[in-house]
């Protein structure tokens, strides 16, 4: 998969700092890392709805207080939204049933503590930015944008993520741009593959932003957990969300969203096409 095209698909007014998205039934479900809402965008009608998923939800929560929702995945009719775990205020898991409109909140502090210990990640370098749920396994992606650059994929099994689980972890050395190691920003599963995004950001902090140097797409084989390929797709964008849009005999189309690291309530959705 060497050939790709990247194009703007559409703009959405009313969402800022988009950090994850799910395409489902001609709708987009989008989260922002400084927002307390889940956004639902109906593509045919261009109608945007917002659903509060925390108490006293606002669109631009100050950095020190935000739940930092960086990862979203789904299985069946349920969406799962993960806090990054980069501070003690960012350890929530929100489950949203899109049919019954029911919301459940769990505390992942114990899970995140075990993950840090298991993979030898310092608390200040722990930063979950991608999640996948297959119905049997969870894959959680630690963004290695700290001093130790620990890009780690956790594979978790068990009855739940609270008190009955087991895990394995795999560490990855991702490509560099201008001497800066790229790091996981999101991922999605398709067949026996995981397609991930990685961005090179010139910072040694999971908390503070830095200069964006570009983004990659890559692929991991779930049978071996080894990287099949990586491909640079931008010199300037900080892509933080990926979802499958179309899968045909000749190509895979993904939708991507970008974190603009500002308070501006405007989001651009991109289409990335990989030729098979």
Structure description:
By secondary structure, the chain is mostly beta strands. The chain has one helix and 22 strands. The protein has one helix at 109-119; strands spanning 4-13, 18-24, 27-32, 37-42, 47-52, 69-75, 78-83, 92-97, 102-107, 128-133, 138-142, 151-158, 165-172, 176-177, 180-181, 183-190, 193-202, 211-221, 226-234, 239-247, 251-258, 266-275. It has a four-stranded antiparallel β-sheet, with no helix packed on it. A four-stranded antiparallel β-sheet has the order 2-3-4-5, with no helix packed on it. Strands 6-7-8-9 form a four-stranded antiparallel β-sheet, with no helix packed on it. β12 (151-158) and β13 form a beta hairpin. The N and C termini lie close together (6 Å).
Quick overview of this protein structure:
The protein has 276 residues and is mainly β. It has one helix at 109-119; strands at 4-13, 18-24, 27-32, 37-42, 47-52, 69-75, 78-83, 92-97, 102-107, 128-133, 138-142, 151-158, 165-172, 176-177, 180-181, 183-190, 193-202, 211-221, 226-234, 239-247, 251-258, 266-275. The protein has a four-stranded antiparallel beta sheet, with no helix packed on it. Strands 2-3-4-5 form a four-stranded antiparallel beta sheet, with no helix packed on it. Strands 6-7-8-9 form a four-stranded antiparallel beta sheet, with no helix packed on it.
Characteristics of this structure?
276 residues; mainly beta; 4-stranded antiparallel β-sheet; 1 helix
Task: Give the SSE layout.
Blueprint: E1 4-13, E2 18-24, E3 27-32, E4 37-42, E5 47-52, E6 69-75, E7 78-83, E8 92-97, E9 102-107, H1 109-119, E10 128-133, E11 138-142, E12 151-158, E13 165-172, E14 176-177, E15 180-181, E16 183-190, E17 193-202, E18 211-221, E19 226-234, E20 239-247, E21 251-258, E22 266-275
């Amino acid at each position: 998969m060497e050939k790709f095209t990247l194009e703007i698909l559409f703009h959405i007014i009313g969402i800022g700092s988009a950090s994850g998205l799910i395409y489902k039934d001609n709708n987009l479900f989008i989260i922002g890392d400084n927002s307390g809402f889940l956004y639902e965008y109906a593509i045919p009608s261009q109608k945007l709805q917002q659903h509060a998923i925390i108490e006293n939800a606002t669109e631009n929560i100050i950095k020190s207080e935000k739940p930092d929702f960086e990862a979203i995945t789904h299985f069946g009719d349920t969406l799962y939204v993960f806090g990054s775990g980069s501070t003690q205020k960012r350890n929530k898991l929100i489950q949203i049933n899109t049919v019954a409109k029911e919301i459940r909140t769990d505390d992942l502090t114990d899970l995140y503590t075990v993950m840090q210990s298991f993979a030898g990640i310092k608390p200040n370098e722990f930063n979950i930015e991608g999640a996948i749920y297959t119905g049997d396994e969870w894959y959680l992606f630690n963004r290695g944008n700290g001093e130790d650059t620990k890009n780690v994929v956790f594979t978790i099994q068990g009855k739940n993520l609270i008190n009955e689980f087991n895990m394995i972890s795999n560490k990855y050395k991702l490509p560099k741009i201008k001497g800066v190691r790229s790091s996981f920003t999101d991922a999605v599963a398709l067949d026996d593959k995981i397609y991930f995004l990685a961005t090179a950001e010139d910072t040694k902090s999971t908390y503070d932003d830095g200069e964006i140097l570009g983004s990659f797409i890559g692929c991991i084989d779930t049978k071996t957990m080894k990287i099949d390929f990586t491909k640079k797709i931008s010199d300037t964008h900080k892509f933080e969300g990926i979802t499958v849009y179309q899968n045909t005999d000749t190509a895979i189309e993904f939708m991507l969203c970008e974190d603009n690291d500002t308070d501006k309530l405007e989001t651009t959705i991109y289409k990335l096409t990989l030729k098979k």
